[in-house]
Amino acid sequence: MLVNTFRHLPQVGPVAERRFWESGVHSWQDFAAADLLRISDKRRVLWTDELELSRERLDARDAAWFAERLPLSEHWRLYEEFRDELLFFDIETTGTSPDFGAHITTIVTYDGRRLREYIYGENLRDFIDDIRSYRALVSFNGRCFDAPWIESHFLTELPHAHIDLRFVLRGLKLRGGLKSIEKQLEIDRDELDGVDGYAAVLLWRRYEQSGDRRWLEALLAYNRADVINLELLLHEACRRASRLTPFEYVPPRPLLTNEPYVPDADIAEFLEAYAAMRSGGYGY
Question: Could you give the residue ranges of the DSSP H alpha helices within 63-145?
């Protein structure tokens, strides 16, 4: 899809891009056919130079260059080209802001083949080294939450392209939080249904207080579900968004590696009580 894209060019919005496609300019290569578009010489020179630069940046596998120039809602267009260099990620924390002494508790990543888990006090620092080989990161609301937390915690910047599905899905009229959108798309979490960010904080507290890793495993199961579902959401976003173009793209079906989570009696009782409290209007 990326080489069919013109939205990253200066002064090209959705109407202009549609005009390109309707005129037979379906790819960067087609743009060289001068008789297909009625544009000024100035714009032709500008866009020709930009497309030459685009080819160079694509050859250099510079996903971030395209992400900086594409609207956030159009970042799905990076998926096909960078699918093998893309990493889904999600974090859990002890609070809403690192400014108040809270910290990251767990991070889970998934590249379509392998899940990795990072735990505070154990191997959290490995996360920064492990993500260096990837070109693009995928999150839900990570631009506003996960990325600032990571950059604050590790005192570093994330140079990757960042596909934030919150903005991609909003462009497709799918609004709300991650759990809400999952329900709209009939994605089920089974035993983890009803668990949210505040429950994740409580699970970590139980783990810290007791040292019982069953609480940590429950938290990691929730964190894993978040990450696995990101792939499902990106897959669906690409399918829906590409239908609005002449180049319908059906991405490969996700490889679902998330094993069903079956909590033991203590965890199940806790989750049941939390869900009851939440349905009564308490917590968030």
Answer: 63-69, 79-82, 126-130
- Are 116 and 130 in contact, with CB atoms under 8 Å apart? yes
The CA-atom distances, in angstroms, between 76 and each of 166, 192, 223, 236, 251 are: 11, 28, 23, 10, 11
Structure letter (DSSP) for residue 284: -
CATH 3.30.420.10, the chain: domain bounds: 79-279
Q: Where in the chain is the domain with CATH 1.10.150?
A: 2-60
Average pLDDT for residues 175-181, to the nearest whole number? 91
φ, ψ dihedrals at 108, nearest 5°: -125, 135
Cβ 10 vs Cβ 50: under 8 Å: yes
The alpha carbon dihedral of 39, 42, 46, 49 has a sign of positive
3-state secondary structure of 136: strand
CA distance 96 to 36: 52
Which H/E stretch holds residue 8? none
Specify the pTM. 0.91
Task: For residue 9, give the DSSP letter.
Answer: S
CATH for 2-60 is 1.10.150
| Nearest CA among 167, 172, 173, 186 for reference residue 243 | 172
Q: How far, in Å, CA of 222 to CA of 219, rounded?
A: 5
> CA-to-CA distance for 193 and 229, rounded, in angstroms?
13
In the chain, the amino acid numbered 226 is D
pLDDT tens across 92-109, in order? 999 888 777 899 999 999
Q: What is the pLDDT of residues 117-156, one digit of tens each?
A: 999 999 999 999 999 999 999 999 999 999 999 999 999 9
Side-chain-side CA neighbours of 24 within 13 Å: the count stands at: 7
- What architecture is domain 79-279? 2-Layer Sandwich (3.30)
| 64: amino acid identity, one letter | A
